[in-house]
């Protein structure tokens, strides 16, 4: 394109200097036959045209946007229990590792709660042991009752047989039958006692389980007095010092993950059609004017700001060695997603009978003719027009002339016309 632009400029200068034919090239729409110049008209001569070759280019380059660097993620380390801050081993700017202990709260009250819960568990376990011993005693009584029932039934049967033959009185036989009935009720009572005592053992075990859960929860809460870094990063905020009283949910420090850098850029809703997720992005930082960084578009907010009509997008770039910090001014340029198309000067386009056309030569002879070629223009910018139909890259077209042109007209090529196509 640079070659054509240079050639066009030289041709324009030479032709306007009347070095070619003694004629003057005029803009589109001018007609020397209607101008009162007093000069000798050369209307009988074919018009002189400057021919160039159509080339591909991108009409609009991607604009730059302004954003601010941020850590890839920021995590707050908050207290989960109430207590006095005993120690805090980090300060702003310090690096920490995930899982590292960075502070500690006073756990005196929680330690007392743990001891109390442990004592309760021991007491309830003793109750379980006592209930089991009682259950075993009842089972022994039940076995004894079964043996006595068996003996009573045998005696009752034997004395009933003797009473039938007159060996003993009926009164004696009835007393042994009564004893057998009493023994049977005793077996039923002891069996019921076993069921009751088994339920007592189960209830005691349940109470132990509940108290053990309370103990485990208290032990866990005691562990919450240690302040642990959840991610690897750099401390960006510190809100308390040792000796301060901390309540649950209070943010003690903030840690930023700078392994990657996030740049939040507000875009106009009109720019959204030119970007896409995972698109390559070029990032320049005023803090590092001689360096260029490569990033990727990873998030497009689903909703625009109702007041500014701008949509926040997030660009992420790697940060080896934690070179880039937060809060820096970043200049973002998205990779151009537009494909090159045939681009020509707007001055080469004419409107003929309501049609958008360019004129093209029919051959490369010394006295060629021209014809109009319908074209479709997709975009115009900065004096250039992008052609999507009607003119292909490598084809010739007339960029300027010294007279209004007509379809089928004979013309003369300027000496700087590009006829290599």
Structure summarized in a few sentences:
This protein has 421 residues and is α+β, with helices and mostly antiparallel strands. Helices cover 30% and strands 33% of the residues.
Sheet/helix structural class: alpha+beta
- N-to-C span: 14 Å
Using the CA coordinates, give the radius of gyration. 50 Å
Tally the helices: what do you get? 3
- Helix/strand order: HEEEEEEHHEEEEEEEEEEEEEEEE
Poorly predicted regions are 1-42
**Largest β sheet strand count, sense and barrel closure:** 6 strands, antiparallel, barrel
Percent strand equals 25-35%
Description:
This protein is of the alpha+beta class and 421 residues long. 30% of the residues lie in helices and 33% in strands. It has helices spanning 2-16, 108-165, 170-223; strands at 48-53, 55-57, 64-78, 83-88, 95-96, 101-105, 226-228, 233-238, 245-246, 251-268, 280-285, 288-300, 310-318, 329-334, 341-345, 350-352, 355-361, 370-374, 376-381, 384-389, 396-401, 412-413. Strands 3-10-13-12-11-14 form a six-stranded antiparallel β-barrel. A hairpin with an 8-residue loop joins strand 17 and strand 18. The protein is elongated. 20% of the residues are buried.
SSE topology:
Layout: H1 2-16, E1 48-53, E2 55-57, E3 64-78, E4 83-88, E5 95-96, E6 101-105, H2 108-165, H3 170-223, E7 226-228, E8 233-238, E9 245-246, E10 251-268, E11 280-285, E12 288-300, E13 310-318, E14 329-334, E15 341-345, E16 350-352, E17 355-361, E18 370-374, E19 376-381, E20 384-389, E21 396-401, E22 412-413
Parallel strand pairs: 1-22
Antiparallel strand pairs: 1-21, 2-15, 3-10, 3-14, 4-6, 4-9, 5-8, 6-7, 8-10, 10-13, 11-12, 11-14, 12-13, 15-20, 16-17, 17-18, 19-20
């Amino acid at each position: 394109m640079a070659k054509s632009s240079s050639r066009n400029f030289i041709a324009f200068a030479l032709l306007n200097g009347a070095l070619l034919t003694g004629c003057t090239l005029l803009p589109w729409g001018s007609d020397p036959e209607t101008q009162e110049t007093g000069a000798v008209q050369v209307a009988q001569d074919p018009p002189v045209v400057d021919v160039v070759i159509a080339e591909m280019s991108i009409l609009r380059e991607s604009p730059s946007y302004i954003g601010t660097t941020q850590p890839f993620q920021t995590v707050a380390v908050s207290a989960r229990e109430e207590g006095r801050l005993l120690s805090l081993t980090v300060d702003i700017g310090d690096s920490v590792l995930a899982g590292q202990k960075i502070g500690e709260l006073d756990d005196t009250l929680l330690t007392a709660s743990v001891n109390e819960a442990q004592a309760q568990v021991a007491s309830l376990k003793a109750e379980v042991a006592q209930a089991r011993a009682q259950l075993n005693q009842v089972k022994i009584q039940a076995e004894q009752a079964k043996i006595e029932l068996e003996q009573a039934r045998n005696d009752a049967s034997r004395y009933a047989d003797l009473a039938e033959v007159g060996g003993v009185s009926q009164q004696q036989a009835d007393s042994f039958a009564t004893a057998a009935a009493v023994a049977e009720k005793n077996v039923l009572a002891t069996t019921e006692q076993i069921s009751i005592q088994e339920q007592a053992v189960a209830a005691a075990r349940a109470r132990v389980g509940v108290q053990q859960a309370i103990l485990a929860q208290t032990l866990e809460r005691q562990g919450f007095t240690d302040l642990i870094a959840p991610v690897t990063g750099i401390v960006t905020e510190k809100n308390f010092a040792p000796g301060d009283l901390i309540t649950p949910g209070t943010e003690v420090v903030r840690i930023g993950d700078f392994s990657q850098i996030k740049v939040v850029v507000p875009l106009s809703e009109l720019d959204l059609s030119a970007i896409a997720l995972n698109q390559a992005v070029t990032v320049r930082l005023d803090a590092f004017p001689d360096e260029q960084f490569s990033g990727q578009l990873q998030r497009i907010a689903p909703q625009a700001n109702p007041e500014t009509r701008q949509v926040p997008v997030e660009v992420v770039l790697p940060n080896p060695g934690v070179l880039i910090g937060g809060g820096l001014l970043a200049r973002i340029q998205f990779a151009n997603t537009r494909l090159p198309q045939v681009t020509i000067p707007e001055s080469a386009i004419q409107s003929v009978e309501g049609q958008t056309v360019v004129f093209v030569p029919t051959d490369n002879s010394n006295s060629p003719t021209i014809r109009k070629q319908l074209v479709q223009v997709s975009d115009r910018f900065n004096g250039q027009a992008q052609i999507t139909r009607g003119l292909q890259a490598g084809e010739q077209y007339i960029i300027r002339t010294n007279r209004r042109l007509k379809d089928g007209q004979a013309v003369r090529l300027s000496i700087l016309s590009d006829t290599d196509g």
